[in-house]
UniProtKB/TrEMBL annotation:
Record organism: Chlamydomonas incerta
Membrane spanning residue stretches: 20-44
Entry protein name: Cytochrome P450
Cofactor(s) needed: heme
Pfam families: p450
Region (Disordered), start-end ranges: 557-581
SUPFAM superfamilies listed in its UniProt record: Cytochrome P450
Record-linked InterPro entries: Cyt_P450, Cyt_P450_CS, Cyt_P450_E_grp-I, Cyt_P450_sf, Cytochrome_P450_monoxygenase
C-alpha cells in the first residue's frame, strides 16, 4: 500500500479519522498558502503616497496592528498614536491599509469627496439584520444609498421633529415615573435601559406612528437584543478571526454566547419585519406627509423602481430603529455622568433652566396612584406639553447647549466614526494619492480630543462654547480652505450648526473640529431629532433632580477621588477635584459600535423636595 493510500484510508495512524484529519490539514495548508500569496501581493502593490506616512510599530507580521486594537477602548489607543505619529498616519489591519486622520481640514475633504463606506458598515448591518439585509447605512451601492437618503431625509425637517417631539414628551412621563420608583425602592437608578426604552418608544410611536409600542410583543427585549448584537458586531470588526468563527454553522453549538446572539437576531428580525409590514399595510400617504413611516412607504427599489416588499424594507426600518435609540440614550447617559463628575457644571445648567422656567411648575403632572415596588404607592407621571419648552426654546439655552456640546466632544457616542473606502482606482485627496481600496478613518474621538486641534483638549470645559461662538470650527493655518460638502437632503434646524450662539451665524467655510454627527453627504440624517431629544431629556432630568454617581461607580477601594492631582493625559483629573481620572472613565467605558458606559448607576435627589426641606432658598448640591 502506498503512503498516499495509507493516509487517505482508515488504516492510517488515527484510524477512521485519518482521512478526515488529512483533508482538513490539506485545506488549512491551501488556505494558509493563499493567505500568504495575498499578503505578498498586498505588500508588493504600489503604495503611492502611503509609503510616506508614518506608522506605529507593527504588532504582528501577519495581523499588522490588529492586536493593539483588541481592547474595549481602542479609540484611546488611536488618540495616543495620533499624539505620537501626527494627525495623519497609517495602520495595517491584515492586508488592508487604514489611514488615520485627526486633522479637521483633511477629514472635511475626505468626508466630502470619498463617498464609499467601508465593509465594516455592511458587516454591522448584517450582524444586526441577518445575511443580505443591508440598509442605506451599510450598502456599498451608491444608488441604493442616494435613493434611500433622498427619500427619507425630509422626515427630519424641523416641522416633523416638532411632531415627533410630542411623542418624546409622552414617553418622558413614563421615564420619570420609573426613575422616581426605582430611586425610591432601590436608592439608586440604573438609568440607561430606561433612556433606551424612552427612545425606542419615541421612535416607534413618533417616527413610525405605531400606537402603544410598549404593548407590542417583544418590545421589552428589543433594546437588550439589539445591544447584544451591536456589541458582537463591533467585536467582529476588530477581530476577523471572531467574525469567521461566528459565521460557521458549528459556532452556536459550541458557544453559548453565539447561540444567544442567534436567538437575539431571530427576535429582532421578526420585530423589524412586523414594523415594516405594518408600514406597508397602510394606504398610500398623501404627498405632504413626510413623517418617516410615510417616506419609507414611498421608498422604491433603487434599480427596478418597484414597490418594496416587507422583506426589502426591513433593513431600512431596522437601521432607523437602531441608529436613533442607542446614540441618543448614550449621549444623555454621558451627560448624566459628566453632570455627576462636575457638580458645579450641573448646578450652572440647573440654574439656567430654573431662571428660564424650563420644565417648571405645571410641566410634570401626577395622574393617578399606582402600586410601586416594595408595596409603596407612587404617582404615575405625565408631562403637560403646554408647560414644556419647545425644541427651539431648548436650542437657545446657552449653558445647557455648552454643556451638551462639551459632553459630545469629550465623550462622543460615535467616537470611532467615520470610515471611508477609496474606490477601486487610485485617488488623490489632501494632496496625496492613495491606492485603490484604502480605508480613510476620520476618527471622531481623535479629532475631538487632539491637542493639535483644541486648547487643553483633555479638559472638560463647557465655557469654551460660551466664550467662542465659532468653537465648532478649526483654528489656525489651513483652517479656511476645506468646508464640508452639504448633506444630501439638507439638515436645516438647530442641529445644522450645533454650538450655542453659533446657531445664529452664517455657515462657516472653516472645517469643523467638532463632528458628533459626522459631516458631508453621509452625515447623520436624524441629527435634528437626536439633538432635540438630548436637549429635552437632559433639561428635564437636571431641572428635576440633582444627580450624582452611586458609590459603586467608584473604582478605587475607598471610592476616593482618583483624579485629584492627576492631569496630563487625564480628561477629568486634576485641579477641579473631579472624582474620576481619564483612566477610570476608560475602565467604565466600552465601544459597542456606540461608545458607552458599561453601567450608569445614579442617585437622584428631587430638587423641589431638597429646596423645600432647606427652606426653599438653597440650591441642591451647591
Ligand atoms: C445623539 C444622537 C446621534 C448621534 C451622535 C449620531 C451620530 C451619527 C454619525 C456620526 C453618523 C455618520 C456616520 C458616518 O459618517 O459614517 C450618523 C449617521 C446616521 N444617523 Fe445618526 N446620530 C444620532 C441620532 C440619530 C437619530 C435620532 C437617527 C434617526 C432616527 C439617526 C439616523 C442616522 C442615519 C440613518 C445615519 C446614516 C446616514 C447616511 O448613511 O446617509 N441618527 N449618525
Amino acid at each position: 500500500m502506498s503512503v498516499l493510500e495509507t493516509f487517505y484510508s482508515s488504516k492510517g495512524p488515527l484510524g477512521v479519522w485519518t482521512p478526515v484529519v488529512v483533508v482538513l490539514l490539506n485545506a488549512l495548508g491551501v488556505a494558509l498558502g493563499l493567505g500568504i500569496v495575498q499578503l505578498f501581493k498586498f505588500l508588493l502593490k504600489p503604495q503611492y503616497d502611503l509609503a510616506k506616512l508614518p506608522q506605529p510599530p507593527v504588532g504582528d507580521w501577519v495581523l499588522g496592528h490588529v492586536k493593539h486594537l483588541l481592547r474595549k477602548d481602542y479609540h484611546r489607543v488611536i488618540l495616543g498614536w495620533a499624539k505620537q505619529y501626527g494627525r495623519i498616519f497609517k495602520l495595517r489591519i491584515l492586508n488592508e491599509w487604514t489611514v488615520v486622520i485627526t486633522d479637521p481640514a483633511a477629514a472635511a475633504q475626505v468626508l466630502a469627496s470619498v463617498p464609499g463606506r467601508t465593509h465594516n458598515y455592511k458587516h454591522i448591518d448584517e450582524v444586526l439584520g441577518g445575511p443580505g439585509k443591508i440598509s442605506m447605512f451599510g450598502t456599498p451601492d451608491e444608488v441604493h444609498w442616494r435613493n434611500a437618503r433622498k427619500t427619507t431625509a425630509p422626515a427630519f425637517s424641523m416641522a416633523n421633529v416638532r411632531r415627533y417631539y410630542g411623542g418624546v414628551l409622552s414617553a418622558a412621563g413614563e421615564l420619570l415615573s420609573s426613575l422616581d420608583a426605582e430611586q425610591g425602592a432601590l436608592g439608586a437608578v440604573d438609568v440607561e435601559p430606561l433612556l433606551q426604552r424612552l427612545m425606542l418608544r419615541a421612535t416607534l410611536e413618533g417616527l413610525f406612528e405605531v400606537p402603544d409600542a410598549t404593548a407590542l410583543p417583544g418590545f421589552d427585549d428589543l433594546a437588550s437584543n439589539i445591544l447584544l448584537l451591536m456589541a458582537e458586531a463591533n467585536a467582529q470588526v476588530t477581530d476577523p478571526v471572531r467574525a469567521f468563527f461566528y459565521s460557521t454553522p458549528i459556532a452556536p453549538l459550541v458557544s453559548k454566547h453565539v447561540a444567544r446572539c442567534r436567538a437575539a437576531l431571530k427576535h429582532v428580525v421578526v420585530f423589524h419585519g412586523k414594523t415594516a409590514a405594518r408600514i406597508l399595510a397602510r394606504p398610500e400617504p398623501s404627498p405632504d406627509n413626510t413623517l418617516l413611516w410615510a417616506c419609507l412607504h414611498r421608498l422604491r427599489h433603487p434599480h427596478t423602481g418597484r414597490k418594496l416588499t416587507a422583506g426589502q424594507l426591513h433593513p431600512e426600518v431596522g437601521m432607523y430603529t437602531t441608529a436613533g435609540f442607542d446614540t441618543t440614550a448614550s449621549t444623555v447617559g454621558w451627560c448624566m455622568y459628566a453632570a455627576s463628575l462636575w457638580p458645579e457644571q450641573q448646578e450652572a445648567v440647573a440654574a439656567e433652566l430654573r431662571a428660564a422656567g424650563v420644565f417648571g411648575p405645571g410641566a410634570v403632572v401626577e395622574v393617578d396612584e399606582a402600586e410601586g415596588q416594595a408595596g409603596a404607592k407612587r404617582p404615575s407621571l405625565r408631562l403637560d406639553a403646554k408647560h414644556c419648552p419647545g425644541p427651539e426654546e431648548l436650542a437657545k439655552l446657552p449653558r445647557l447647549n455648552a454643556f451638551i456640546n462639551e459632553v459630545m466632544r469629550v465623550f462622543p457616542p460615535t467616537a470611532i466614526s467615520a470610515e471611508r473606502l477609496t474606490p477601486d482606482y487610485p485617488i488623490t485627496v489632501m494632496g496625496m494619492t492613495f491606492p485603490p481600496k484604502t480605508v480613510l478613518w476620520c476618527i471622531t474621538y481623535g479629532i475631538h480630543m487632539s491637542d493639535a486641534n483644541w486648547e487643553e483638549a483633555a479638559k472638560f470645559r463647557p465655557e469654551r462654547w460660551l466664550e467662542d461662538s465659532r468653537c465648532a470650527f478649526a483654528k489656525g493655518p489651513g483652517a479656511g480652505g476645506a468646508a464640508a460638502a452639504p448633506a444630501v437632503g439638507g439638515t436645516e434646524g438647530p442641529a445644522a450648526a450645533i454650538g450655542g450662539a453659533a446657531e445664529e451665524e452664517a455657515p462657516s467655510t472653516a472645517p469643523r473640529r467638532f463632528l458628533p454627527f459626522g459631516q458631508g453627504p453621509k452625515n447623520c440624517v436624524g441629527q435634528n431629532f437626536g439633538i432635540t431629544v438630548v436637549r429635552a431629556v437632559v433639561a428635564l432630568l437636571l431641572s428635576r433632580y440633582a444627580v450624582s454617581l452611586h458609590p459603586d461607580m467608584d473604582l478605587s477601594p475607598e471610592g476616593d477621588t482618583l483624579g485629584a492631582g492627576g492631569g496630563g493625559d487625564s480628561a477629568q483629573g486634576g485641579s477641579d477635584g473631579c472624582r474620576h481620572s481619564a483612566e477610570d472613565t476608560a475602565r467604565l467605558t466600552h465601544v459597542a459600535v456606540i461608545t458607552k458606559l458599561k453601567k450608569l448607576r445614579l442617585v437622584l435627589q428631587r430638587r423641589d423636595r431638597a429646596a423645600a426641606a432647606a427652606g426653599g432658598g438653597v440650591m441642591v448640591g451647591s
